[in-house]
Write a structure and sequence with these properties.
It is flat, with a radius of gyration of 40 Å. It is built from 17 helices and 16 strands. The protein has 724 residues and is α/β, with parallel strands linked by helices. 53% of the residues lie in helices and 13% in strands. α13 links the parallel β12 (568-570) and β13. It has an eight-stranded parallel beta barrel, surrounded by four helices. The chain has a four-stranded antiparallel β-sheet with strand order 2-5-7-8. Strands 1-6 form a two-stranded parallel sheet.
Amino acid sequence: MKILLFLLLLLLPLSKSAAAGVRLLSEFYPHLDQAASVLKAQADLEAERSNLLAQESLKGWEVFGSVSGGYQRSPFAREPFGHFFDPMARIGVRYPLLGSAERRQRAVEDAATQVRIEGIRLDWSKRLAALFIEENYAAYWSAQKMLALTDAYTRLRNDGVDRLLLNRQEAGLLFKSDYFEFLSAFDRADRTHIEFSNNKNQALMRLAHLTNTVVLPFEAVKPPLAEIPSTAAHDIEQPDLRILQAQIDNLQNIREIESWQGIDSDISMTAFGGPAIPHPSPPGDGMQWGYGGAVGLNFRMPLEIVSYRKNEQSRLNSQLISLRADYTRRDQELQHEFHALLNSYQQLVQQIKFQRTRLEAAHELIRESGLRLRVMDGDVIEKYFKAINAYYRVAIENVEAESEHWKLHIRLRQFLTVAETQGKDYYPAVETAMLLEPLHSAGNFLGNKDAKPIPVKQVKLPEPAYPAIVSSQFAVYVWNFEALINRADFWGRKQSNAINRLLISLNAQEISAASASPARLTNFIRDSRQRKKKVELLLGDPDWILPQFRANLLNHIGALKQFDFDGLHLDIEPDQLESELAGEKRLTEMLETIRQVTAISPWPVGVSIHPRYLQPESSYGLCIPCKLQEIGVKEIAVMYYSMNIQAIVSTLQSVMQRYPALVFSLAQSLEQELGPENSYAHKPRRIFSDAMQQLQDQLQRSNFGGLIIQSWQDWENYLYENSL
């Protein structure tokens, strides 16, 4: 292990020059069995299992025997045979009865109880090792985030802030005390940078120690945390309670099965042989030999058997009372400790809400101060610097609150098991890019800011520069195809530049018209190909899940076989089906519809599903991706409408790794009718652009199919309303 850590320290400086790849928390769990605590618990369990087998081998029949020899003198023997050598050999078997059998059984039960106890300790050591890994992963994540904030803040000094402050101080426009105060803020940030860097390196080394592997610097992603309800009763799960319960169960079993205390007994069968006592015999006769056997019932008991039994029962009762009292006391202690943690956790949730409000206020203060700085003279620039300093402090406090929230969540999960299918945490972490944006904007502005303020009459606000929507292109659901195809300027509109794949929906009337007069749709597909854009048929009606409506879907596909689509995409969401059909039956019928479509489709088939159906636990035990792969589906579009990028990345990376033969795409929403936590329609283009770029970068795999926008009409409206 020392050599491993030494190599890790040697590799750290070299790895800084390389781009750190994303490593999810789940990637560390396969190495849990290498943790020292787990290895020790495993060894202790194996030792107790061997002891149990040894105790079980002592039960039942046993062999005994003896060999002896000596000299005798017989009054019946003639001289010189009066003194002779007398050897004797005995061998037998015996079976314990009554108290002896109970004592053997008790030794076996004690050994079995110890095996259960060591099994509990092994399970707990694995669970604790996983939580320790998560705790250090959380520490690494928070240190990484705070380092990014500190780097962005201290970079302002290199962007000309120190020169600007010095010029104003020398010109008498800035108090010297304020000048030193601003500089000390950067010095303080340098000091905290060292602290955050040490925390990050320590967390990295602990991860290496816990997994017994080399762990190089990486990009940490916070997974979604399951919600911990505050009202329902919680069943505390702790190893000491389970161990005490195992000991209590063992003592209760002893009291129930033992009834022969103090009486040892066995039945035995013995065979023996040796020389017979010599009698007068003619000279020259040899020694005479004899043998025999016996069956015996042996027992042993004290004279005070009644007193012994009474005191033995009293001892067992006292031990049982003591263990039950220990259990009650420990349970009360754990309940108190858990609820104290739960109260702290709930307070921290409110603290995070407060920190988010402060963060928004600090962000807005920077924006307002920056606007005032463009048009006003005086001490406005000092206020702008103070706003930047305040934002940096609040942003660091926000990350600290998020980190503490995560660590408290981990500590609470030491007491209880939280189901993965449970509701998710309502307070996901603020994206790093969103935290850094005000500091980057300040750096860009101050880097071009002269020391002399701009007079009001010369003010001309610069045009905001927004980045491209994303470095790569999107697919898009087109539900209003009839309106789109009628536009003469469609291919010239800027909204179409970022689209490389159109999933066009046709209703029954449009399908009939296209089948009768195919020229218009054929020309659209041809024009799309010339512009290197794919066109796929999109069919979406949840009623097609039902057997009685399935034929309509198959007929539509048959009517459109003449068109050279790049694929067929089904958006038949089972959750939108208004029918008494429910549960597993609903999903089974959906799979049957997809199977029949795939069997007759001349184009590759893809489907859109909710992320809950990626896991059997939330799909009534069905493995939906497995079934779709068996059917022959080529692509699964996951309609994961959320602002929590880490949760999306964690879910999709996991499923893409499990099913490498399937292509997975990600659908994101720009729908106005969805809430701000589900749709980017309520966010500025800068936020949307950053989020899409992060998703593209972090989901890059050979089986990632790209991003799909819901929908074309919402895309047009969004770009029109967010033209700047």
